[in-house]
## 1
Amino acid sequence: MEHNKGDLTPEPRVAVVVFLLKGRSVLLGRRRASVGNATFALPGGHLEFGESFEECAAREVKEETGLEIRNAEFLTVTNNVMLDQPKKCHYVTIFMRVIVGVDAPKEEQEPQNLEPHKCDGWDWYEWDHLPQPLFGPLEKMVKGGYDPFSS
Ligand code: 8DG
Ligand code: MG
């Protein structure tokens, strides 16, 4: 199929999201967005042109929570086709990990809700008692038994 320049042809996008792990807890925020509204999700966003996954992870976490991370580690990638959303979308989602206290930030640093129009607020949730509902791509991993602590 041919498409003219300027056509609103949907295309898959690349997202980078981060498991910030502290003890047995993970940092989640409830989304305010057209995709996954009111669901609990990881900090993260779109990979920008020229960025490495690590750079994108650090930038998004800083923009959204104020936390400074380094050495984010690649965990896995999933393919997320979300056609049931108010805004249909398709993301190739890169999951990164940061262990708090090891890869920074320091344990005493607390997340701030720097984009309150996009998130209700950040909090630490025990992996064994995750809040509901989770954002689809995260829920899919949890249901599949994925464990970000042991990878
Ligand atoms: P940006 O424009 O500032 O780069 O992005 P954003 O406004 O922070 O985008 P986002 O919606 O937070 O993240 C981009 C996409 O990443 C989101 O629409 C779908 C995909 N994504 C997942 N899983 C997760 C997740 O757990 N958290 C976040 N934030 N995004 C996720 O597939
Ligand atoms: Mg985001």
## 2
Amino acid sequence: MRPLHRLLHVSALGVCLHVHAQKDARLLVTLNAQAFTTAAEAHEPGKSPFSVEAGKKEWLLESVSGWRSGFWPGMQWYLYEATGDGFWKTQADRSTRQLERILDKQAHSHDIGFQFYCSYGNAYRITNDEAYAKVMLRAADSLATLFDPHYGSICSWTYRKRIGEWPHHTIIDNMMNLELLFWAARNGGGKRLYDIAVSHARVSHKAHYRPDNTTAHVAWYDEKTGAPNKQMTHQGLADGSMWARGQAWAIYGFTVCYRETRDPEFLAAATGAADAFLKRLPADKVPYWDFDDPTIPNAPRDASAASITASALLELSGLVTNKSLQARYRKEALAMLNELSSPQYLKPEMNHAMLQHSTGNKPQGKDIDVPLIYADYYFVEALRRAGRL
Ligand code: GLY
């Protein structure tokens, strides 16, 4: 029997999934709790796990200066929150605090939001320790240094502008980093940070969206007028295609903007992007890496896009007032989590990651059909949100 409804429960003994099947059939999938613990204990200062090589068990490590470094501490905070186990608190605190050294007054990229909101943000939310909040306020100020009032937006990859490769530009992923600014504005950082986030969101809506509510990964801007003048891709298949994770970032990012502002423009952006994504989702609810890849159904999947979208839809379902839309978003999110929790994606025997089959950057041949730390992070976040339904 195909289970319809599965909910995560992280037990105090280890990381366990209690799978509630259609009626009374109940499966217990024990995730590789020992492996997770081993990975946490194998901590290397200045390094952060991001993926696993085929045929290997252990997480690959990279410098904490990379954009993915907030997800590992963030996941450890979620595990601490779910289990109350001090082991995870110690691990989470250690991997969070090692990020402080990458914080500069002048930001180098928009990724600061990913890095500091997922780590320090969860740390502060769970512990209320002001030491974490202080770092977050510095991180928000640093991110704000990338805001250019002429364009009304944050420049996403400053090095490309610095070397003259690209003019001022935004990437849709940048929407995810606004949550740090909203948080900081509410917590002593000043209204300026709120205004920057709102301006960036408005400009991005105009610059990245197409009439059918699919989104372009990258937007360029005219130097004289400051207005957007070009849509293109970097990690998607083509300039006009729907790159699955980019669309997921748009759904999540505009959902956050609506939560923070209650501006109907942002609700329309979130629901528009969500509807475009859901309309073309395969029957098993996990997207291929790009919705327009002509090799579908043989193209690689991107489980991370499903995790991010499931988490976003669970929040969005609580923000929309239309009852049937609420129910639809909830149902779709749970169906995605259901599939991600199946042995097709969740294979604790394979390696130390939770989810298999994510795709990071296919055009550049990087991280194709592999576990990725952000797939796991948003999966756990979504399951946590699902548990509250
Ligand atoms: N830069 C974030 C991503 O690859 O989705």
